[in-house]
């Protein structure tokens, strides 16, 4: 039953995102979030700096989010010194309260996550202009210039992220 509900939520989210297609190619969001280091980090610290950025919105209590974390880490490790990085945003849903800083830090430490992790709440999608957050995970793909070029709803793989970037670069080159 829960699986069907989660699938329905993902479909609804995809429809919301598709209906707001005008945000594709939008400028990098002007949002500042707290990091696990306790400091404030504007997204512009990462986005628009000459590398692709995968901005992954996730929740520590979300099974599909846990499923994709190794893939995000593999992608980050393979690309961080060359073409792309991953930045995670751990969402704290008020009704669940599972993205508390200490819980997120423990998860990051236990799973050897090395990409930046920021803390946010469910208003993050409104803040970056992509509509309502109906579920996690969501990966937003920003190009080297800081333009949002695509998104992925649900668990993402290293291969899918590489393909998104390859397709966008091929399209830009033609």
Element pattern in H and E: HEEEHEHEHEEH
Distance between the termini: 46 Å
Radius of gyration: 15 Å
Helix fraction by DSSP (H/I, runs of at least 4): 25-40%
How would the global form be characterised?
globular
> What is the percentage of strand-forming residues?
15-25%
How many helices does DSSP assign? 5
Count of beta strands? 7
Largest sheet features: 7 strands, mixed
As laid out across the biggest beta sheet, the strand order is 2-1-5-4-3-6-7
Determine the mean pLDDT: 81
| Sequence stretches where pLDDT stays below 50 over 5 or more residues | 2-25
Give your account of this protein's structure.
This protein is α/β, with parallel strands linked by helices. The protein contains five helices and seven strands, in the order H-E-E-E-H-E-H-E-H-E-E-H. A seven-stranded mixed β-sheet has the order 2-1-5-4-3-6-7, with helices on both faces. Helix 2 packs across helix 5. The chain is globular and about 45 Å long.
């Amino acid at each position: 039953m829960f699986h069907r509900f989660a699938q329905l939520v993902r479909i609804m989210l995809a429809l919301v995102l598709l209906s707001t297609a005008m945000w594709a190619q939008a400028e990098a969001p002007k949002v500042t979030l707290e990091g696990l280091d306790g400091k404030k980090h504007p997204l512009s610290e990462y986005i628009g700096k000459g590398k692709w950025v995968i901005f992954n919105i996730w929740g520590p209590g979300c099974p599909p989010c846990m499923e994709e974390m190794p893939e995000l880490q593999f992608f980050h490790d393979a690309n961080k010194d060359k073409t792309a990085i991953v930045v995670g945003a751990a969402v704290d849903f008020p009704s669940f309260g599972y993205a508390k800083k200490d819980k997120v830090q423990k998860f990051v430490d236990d799973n050897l996550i090395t990409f930046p992790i920021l803390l946010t709440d469910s208003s993050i999608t409104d803040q970056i202009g992509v509509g309502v957050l109906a579920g996690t995970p969501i990966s937003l793909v920003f190009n080297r210039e800081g333009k949002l070029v695509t998104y992925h709803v649900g668990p993402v793989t290293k291969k899918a992220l590489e393909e998104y970037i390859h397709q966008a670069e091929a399209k830009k080159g033609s």
